[in-house]
Hints:
The structure holds 2 protein chains of 2 kinds. Chain A is α+β, with helices and mostly antiparallel strands. Chain A has a single domain (3-80), classed as Mth169, Chain: A, CATH 3.30.1280. Chain A has helices at 17-28, 53-67, and strands spanning 3-10, 41-46, 73-80. Chain A has a 3-stranded antiparallel β-sheet, covered by helices on one side. The longest helix of chain A is centred in the last third of the chain and has 15 residues, at 53-67. Chain A is elongated, with a radius of gyration of 16 Å. In chain A, 17% of the residues are buried. By secondary structure, chain B is α/β, with parallel strands linked by helices. Chain B has helices at residues 14-23, 66-76, 86-93, 150-158, 218-232; strands at 2-7, 27-32, 43-46, 81-84, 100-102, 110-118, 134-141, 145-147, 162-166, 178-182, 188-191. In chain B, the strands form 2 sheets. In chain B, strands 2-1-3-4-11-10-9-6-7 form a 9-stranded mixed β-sheet, with helices on both faces. A two-stranded antiparallel sheet of chain B has the order 5-8. The two termini of chain B are 14 Å apart. Chain A binds chain B through residues 10, 14-18, 20-21, 66-67, 69, 71-72, and chain B through 56-57, 60, 64, 92-93, 99-107, 145, 147-149, 152, 173. Chain A: Belongs to the PurS family. Chain A: Its EC number is 6.3.5.3.
Amino acid sequence: MPTIVVEVMPKAEILDPQGKAVAGALTRLGHNQFSGVRIGKRFELTVDGPVTAETLAAAKTIAEDILSNSVIEDVVSISEAK
Amino acid sequence: MRVGVITFPGSLDERDAQRAVKLAGGTPVALWHGAHDLEGVEAIILPGGFSYGDYLRAGSIASHAPIMAEVIDAAHKGMPVLGICNGFQMLAEARLVPGAHGRNDCGTFVRRDQKLIVENNNTAWTTDFAQGEEIIIPLKNADGRFVANADTIKRIEDNGQVTFRYVGMNPNGSLDDIAGVSNEAGNVVGLMPHPEHAVEPGFGPDTAQAMRSGLDGLKFFTSVIQSTILSKA
């Protein structure tokens, strides 16, 4: 099925306790080459029909209005799944 | 006075909020998230819980529930609205109050009897408090960290929209120790701790006088009844 992928990340200046917890675990496990982890969200929107400029625009609207909260998060990408 | 308490899928504290309204002398009215009817209430409470399992973001799906269209409209017209915990998250998601919420900085759920200072007693829900009064009510949340950008923080601090602040310790990493905020008009208030759990002897926080005797939450509910009566006089 045609799919649009939306990716949302917490803003850089916003503390990400989930990412910090994972980063701490990696350090404990000896993976010292990774100094930080931030966790975001990936949404896969199944499209009824082909992905068009219109469906991408609609995806952008819901990505900004519903899938993310602009106070704490950024929409980092909207694209058709390959 | 009829005070509506809305139940969402996953609400937990609506019965306690209804009882708090009753103990304060009001008439609680159970409202349903899926309806488009406020049933003639004069104030609204969005209760605590985990609506929609906190999926997407805490409070976000509930902020789009059918009845929220009426709640947002009524709030803009001046009706008192109180959001408690998950209700506060809904108010922020609906943009009825400034800011947003993130995971507690400690990474865990926190439950404690929390001391707060009343920073603004000139809102619909705080008139029975003294300005600067310190109160203790229960706090219980996982996503309670109040976040806003620097401009917003300055604006709400300057406008007196910071309604409550944590005292003694900051349980979740909220900016400026902010525990509760209001809209500009002061009719909409959201806070993380739970006043409805400190309204009845035997069930509230411990005090120096007696175990579980803390009733500091009752004034939220008496305030809205009093301020509504005064607004009609």
